[in-house]
Amino acid sequence: MYEDTHSVAVPDHASAITSIVQRYYPQAQVNVRHSARRYDDALKDADENIDERNESYILSHQILPREIIIEAVCLYIDSLKINIKNIDNESENGYVHALINDIKVYFLSGVIKYQNFMFRKVSDNTWHLASGLSHEVILQHVIEGALKTIPHSDAAIFRIYDQEKNLLIPVAMLGFENNYYEYAVTPQQSISGKAFESRSSILVNSREEILNSFTEHSTVRETIMKNNPIANALLCVPVLDQQTCYGTLTILSLKRHSVFNSLAVSLLETFASQVALAWRNARLYDEKAASLREVETLKSQLEKQNRLLKVSVDLHADMINLSTKFNRLDEFIEQLSARVNSAMSYIDILGHRYFNARSQHYSWDTLSHLHKAHDNTSNVITEGECLIYPLINDDFLVGFIIINGYDIDELNSVIAARIRDFVVMEIMKRTSAVIIAHKKIAFIFQEIIRYGLSARHERSLLDNGFHFKNWIMCIRLSPFNTELNDLTFITIKNHLVGKTGLNHSAFYVENDEVVIFHSENINGKLSMLEQKIGEDHYLQHNFQVGLSSITTKENIVISHQQAGTALDVLKTRQRPGILNFSNTGIERLFTKHNSEELKTFVNDVLSPVLNTGDKGAVLIATLQSYLKNSQSTVLTAKELNIHINTLYQRLRKFETLTNLSLANPDDFLMISLSCHMNRIYS
Q1: Which of 127, 129, 163, 318 gets the highest tally of CB atoms within 10 A of its CB?
Q2: How confident is the model over 21-40, as pLDDT tens digits?
Q3: Burial of 185 (0-12, 13-18, 19+ CB in 10 A)
Q4: In 10 A of CB 207, how many CB atoms?
């Protein structure tokens, strides 16, 4: 703890002063005792007998019959009252002046000794500051040290200047409520601001001066001052180190008046200079400590990166060895999972799969939907107890790796990234091989379509995994509003094999279309396959699919043409869907015309009716029902729930508007065709 500077042992004033008096009045009776008067109270007295008045003591005397009373009221040392009795008054005038001068010298000597004592104590009290190597330690000691340094101080505030905010901010204090910490001032406000800007100490020894020092209205100050006392005396010094001013240190006297003098200023300035030195050293210490921490952090990061790099390099070497040993990707992933001691699962666009028990419920479709739900941008998807890593090549999804677990630490991320890059490369390498194999199949079928089926062609296709049986069906499809590339082709193949059972089919690409031939010995199996394809929601909404009729393998060229015709009808309609050649009807005759031409034809015939708005729509609906019911007025009226006379009126109205006759064969054909086209293309 700090030593209380002004708690000093009282010297033997009585014997010293008695000796001085007896030099002048050897026979006198001398009585020296403590005086209760205070220095700040004595300042107010207008005593004409005052012999000395300075900032350390006030000396006065009074002459009575056969007695002299001398009083010394001191600020820092004991106040004394000296009674000298049994003296000869006639000799007073010759000795009293000399006696007063000797007593002045005595008290002046005492003040000087006390000043020296206090400066030594300031030096002793500052070792706590020097012992602290952080700002926190300094803040613990600066206030108590200031109060122990300056006698009669009751409160203290230490403010530090924040350059960014241009504020002097209280960082330590004693003698006030905690809300005083909110009282920050600019250098242009208050006594602290003036001391900071001028780099000079400011001493104010009256409450009135303190209150008048606030030149600007501040709601914060007024609120805080309501709960905090106003001082009677204040001393503020800059915390100054050479040319750098860190802030201000303020001490206040709440109980006494006019108690701070030049000694207090010197003492507090000396202490504040030590505070500034300690603050500077703490700042240098903090900077060096921060630099050391940064070096340690960088060292730790470098060591961590080296460990991760080693893991990555070793893993890459292991993956190369495993990929040469295990040709299938699912086998490769199984072995790799054991190598990194992680429960991994896998599925890719080529159809390779490896699932452990906890993730076997996933399929390509469920994982693809999860990926889309995350806007196709997530590097890792957290799903239940699994981490799902999409495998992307040129923005195209080619597979998924699934790792059981919740945490994505840096090591796992490095391993996952290395595995992903390697597996994507392997997928694309194997994709190239798959595409080459399908191109061989495409070349064979192109020869068949051009020259007809031969035994040589059948043997070549059998070598490539396709066996011609009794019955055959051709499927030709095109992605709707999507470009066809190698990966899209493989995705389509995987979907059809998984959803419809086309696992023994021949797949190849021809003029931006996927062509599939499927052959069975039993006609009914192809009919079931046709039904599965027609019910596939994914195909209905994302592709244009043309199906041929079921025929014998000898009619393979016709089958190819029929599927192409059905696909052309869908392309003319400009909408996705699935269409069998047997359902193309008369539309197959118009596949060489684009949809705009067909819409123009419909408009030329039906515009007089369509332009009449809702009434025209009723006439068109009536006529379509009439045509569907083979021109039966009874069936049409029943279907539309109208009277038969109303039906006749609508039909005559239609004929009047179009200037066509339903009884005329040519007009009837024109009407039937335009109504059909209107239903398809409008």
Answers
A1: 129
A2: 888 888 888 898 888 888 88
A3: buried
A4: 14
